[in-house]
From TrEMBL:
Record-given protein name: 3'-phosphate/5'-hydroxy nucleic acid ligase
Entry's EC annotation: 6.5.1.8
Lineage: Bacteria, Pseudomonadati, Pseudomonadota, Betaproteobacteria, Burkholderiales
Pfam families to which the protein is assigned, alphabetical: RtcB
InterPro entries in alphabetical order: RtcB, RtcB-like, RtcB-like_sf
Alphabetical keyword list: GTP-binding, Ligase, Manganese, Metal-binding, Nucleotide-binding, RNA repair
Organism: Pseudoduganella albidiflava
Cofactor: Mn(2+)
Binding site for GMP: 174-178, 284-285, 316-319, 323, 340-343, 410
GO biological process, one term: RNA processing
């Protein structure tokens, strides 16, 4: 059923699902997953679905889940606080070198990226972590350390995780660092990452705790990844504390990377320049308390960005496609949210089966980036059409800047 710009999906025995997906594909498996979440008894009013929606683990990516009295750790996921940061500079396209390879190389040397293979018996350092963390990382960690130590007193297993050594690092998968040009030729720096190894450990631990609690209470769930923690319990309080810290870590992670990115660019471009002429740092995998329709609720954004009236956000396209700096319109029905990107149309394995290295090279023509088999799963054709995604949510956000990458670093 269509109502204005969104489609309504009625769920038998559950809350409604409002979908800003007109003109973009939505897989049946994602619809079924949304229906399962909508049947949880603590959903507040309805679930809002963004146009980049696709099947996820636990809950559907591109969904906004408001809850009362409970929280679903797997809906937040294990990349807690994953999000974007972008900064406009006083550089212009003509200030960039003709050969962008040294610029990409300088960025790759300045910021650890990728990850070591998770093979049995591997004991080496994760290539995506610091060997000797620089002073900027040490100083940032000291702002997080005391709270983390307090969390570890309750959950000692989190202490032996990659935390300090992952602060200011990129990771792999769809995480990236880019140098972009906007519609007027201004140079922007943009990056995408989250809470890294420590966030993964926190998410995994509390997902397991929630599932164990559900088994204890013989809860009948449509999906084990919808296991939840009830407000008023010690596990709930511990999770809220830990997830809040992981979201701080993620934001700090992006800030440290941005500082190191700027320093790396200065080693290649001699012209003095200013940064943060305009700047945005926003989560898109997180949970926080918000007031909606006059009531304080927990809002979990699983691949969605806050888009309150006047609030700036970032909607990245895929590798080789345009990205957007947007301003929220404060749409109440979407719980003041918008999409976090284009959204995948196929799995990573399917993309590797379907596309070739030649396809990847053609799709990223004009971008200084990796062009090897290791990033075929990030090929633009594995994602939805970003222009269709933007049209589907034009009542949620307005476009402030359109960015096109010229350098892209991936792990």
């Amino acid at each position: 059923m269509k109502t204005g710009q969104y489609d309504m999906m009625d769920v038998e025995g559950g809350s409604p699902v409002k979908m800003w997906t007109q003109g973009v594909p939505v897989e049946q498996a994602a619809r079924e997953q949304l229906a399962n979440t909508a049947r949880m008894p603590f959903i507040y009013k309805h679930i809002a679905v963004m146009p980049d929606v696709h099947l996820g683990k636990g809950s559907t990516i591109g969904s906004v889940i408001p809850t009362l009295g409970a929280i679903i750790p797997a809906a937040v996921g294990v990349d807690i606080g994953c999000g974007m940061m972008a900064a406009k500079t006083t550089l212009n396209a003509r200030d960039l070198p003709d050969n962008l390879a040294p610029l990409r190389s300088a960025i790759e040397k300045a910021i650890p990226h990728g990850m070591s293979p998770k093979t049995r018996g591997y004991r080496g350092r994760d290539v995506g972590s610091w060997h000797d963390a620089p002073s900027t990382v040490d100083a940032a960690w000291m702002q997080l350390k005391d709270e983390f130590d307090a969390i570890c007193e309750k959950t000692p297993k989190l202490k032996n995780t990659n935390n300090h050594r992952h602060l200011g690092t990129l990771g792999g998968g769809n995480h990236f660092i880019e140098v972009c040009l906007d519609e007027e030729g201004a140079v922007w720096f943009m990056l995408h990452s989250g809470s890294r190894g420590v966030g993964n450990a926190i998410g995994t631990h509390f997902i397991e705790l929630a599932q164990r609690e559900m088994r204890t209470h013989m809860a009948n769930l449509p999906d084990s990844d919808l296991a939840y923690l009830r407000e008023g319990t010690s596990h709930y309080d511990d999770y809220v504390e830990a997830v809040g810290w992981a979201q701080k870590f993620a934001r700090m992670n992006r800030e440290v990377m941005m500082r190191n990115l700027i320093a790396a660019v200065r080693t290649v471009i001699a012209k003095p320049f200013e940064t943060h002429v305009e700047a945005v740092n926003c989560h898109h995998n997180y949970v926080q308390k918000e007031t909606h329709f006059g009531k304080e609720v927990l809002v979990t954004r699983k691949g969605a960005v806050s888009a309150r009236a006047g609030e700036l956000g970032i909607i990245p396209g895929s590798m080789g496609a345009r990205s957007f700096i947007v301003r929220g319109k404060g749409n109440a029905e979407s719980f003041h949210s918008c999409s976090h990107g284009a959204g995948r149309t196929m799995s990573r394995n399917e993309a590797k089966r379907r596309f070739t290295l030649a396809d990847q090279e053609r799709a990223t023509e004009g971008v200084e980036c990796r062009k090897d088999s290791g990033v075929i799963d990030e090929i633009p054709m594995a994602y939805k059409d970003i222009d269709a995604v933007m049209r589907a949510q034009d009542e949620l956000v307005e476009v402030v800047h359109t960015l096109k990458q010229v350098v892209c670093v991936k792990g």
